[in-house]
Amino acid sequence: MANSKRDLFRTRRMRVRSKLRKTSNGRPRLSVHRSSKNISVQLIDDVQGVTLASASSLEKELGIVGKNNVEAAAKIGAAIAERARKAGIEEVYFDRGGFLFHGKVKALADAAREGGLKF
């Protein structure tokens, strides 16, 4: 039976997420979503099921609306690190979803680390 690209992506995303949950120790999850036009990130508390902070390329105050490149991803990573500090969060675990850890996802992660998040 042939799986669609979407099914393969969902399988990969759930495999990554289940492995991370085993080692999370109650830390919030830094979840990344990348589409063809935008990139967004959320800090999620899985215990309570709430979003603690978020950042997206759709936000006008970041000045990157409509841009989906490595520089935009780095700005989003810096923004989420700043918002996490304001929320009192220092340690998270990085959930890349089904995306490979290179390009925009890596740039976002590196900028978040430089901003003070530990993962």
TrEMBL record:
Protein name as annotated: Large ribosomal subunit protein uL18
Pfam families for the chain: Ribosomal_L18p
Keyword Endoplasmic reticulum: no
GO BP, sorted A to Z: translation
Function in brief: This is one of the proteins that bind and probably mediate the attachment of the 5S RNA into the large ribosomal subunit, where it forms part of the central protuberance.
GO-annotated molecular function: 5S rRNA binding; structural constituent of ribosome
The species this protein was found in: Halovulum dunhuangense
Family according to the record: Belongs to the universal ribosomal protein uL18 family.
Record's subunit section: Part of the 50S ribosomal subunit; part of the 5S rRNA/L5/L18/L25 subcomplex. Contacts the 5S and 23S rRNAs.
GO cellular component: cytosolic large ribosomal subunit
Keyword RNA-binding: yes
Keyword terms, alphabetized: Ribonucleoprotein, Ribosomal protein, RNA-binding, rRNA-binding
InterPro entries in UniProt: Ribosomal_L18 (IPR057268), Ribosomal_uL18_bac-type (IPR004389), Ribosomal_uL18_bac/plant/anim (IPR005484)
Source superkingdom: Bacteria
